[in-house]
Amino acid sequence: MARVLRAGQEAIEEAARLVRAGGLIIYPTDTVYGLGCDPLNTRAVERAFRAKGRGFDKPMPVLASGLEQAMRIAEFSPLALRLAEVFWPGPLTLVLPRRPVLPDAVSCGRPSVGVRVPGHDFALRLIEACGGLLIGTSANRSGHPPPRTAQEAISKLGDVVDLVIDGGPAPLGIPSTVVDLTGPEPVVLREGAISSERLLAILRR
């Protein structure tokens, strides 16, 4: 069973050490608990897929500590920048054209990547300590509900990760909204914490 630490500086330092070494962590975000690893480390990403029992056909989202870090792995159109300005940090994942620096394993060979800056102070500090980018898939077995607490995440993945960080219940408790901006028109792939109506109000401006 993985070691469990309360959210704090010790947890950040230990998580950063593990992530740099190719480890897997469970950590709190604004939406749900995430399963994290270094997105630039192909072996770590493959380990995350195996931990979730997920086929290598559904891309992993990436969380960034800020817009500048997100731009390392994704290409931002003017519309993407506008949405990021309005909704980041927060529960909106933007699917954008990916840059070559991102391994194929993250996107399952697709030319796009889902990226988000979470609205959660601890998560942002953690991601920054891990190099500015962290895999941000939910910490559950594929097909199961996303965990809102560390205890729920431990019950699903506690035996296949290296560290669990307990930051209390996730404030929102539901996944992010996902918008695909890779085509001629924006497409809402998943309605989550941000409603389609709220998104459309911004898109129509």
Structure, described:
With 205 residues, the protein is α/β, with parallel strands linked by helices. 34% of the residues lie in helices and 20% in strands. The protein is built from eight helices and eleven strands. The protein has helices at 9-20, 42-52, 67-73, 78-87, 104-107, 121-129, 150-157, 196-203; strands spanning 3-6, 25-27, 34-36, 62-64, 92-97, 112-116, 133-135, 137-138, 163-166, 177-180, 187-190. Strand 2 and strand 3 form a beta hairpin. The radius of gyration is 16 Å and the shape is globular.
- Tertiary shape: globular
Structural class assignment: alpha/beta
Annotation, overall tally of beta strands: 11
Strand order of the largest sheet: 7-4-6-5-10-11
Radius of gyration: 16 Å
Q: What are the low-pLDDT stretches, counting only 5+ consecutive residues below 50?
A: none
- N-end to C-end Cα span: 50 Å
Q: Can you give the helix content as a percent range?
A: 25-40%
Mean pLDDT: 96
Number of distinct helices: 8
**SSE pattern, N- to C-terminal:** EHEEHEHHEHEHEEHEEEH
What is the strand content?
Answer: 15-25%
Major sheet description: 6 strands, mixed
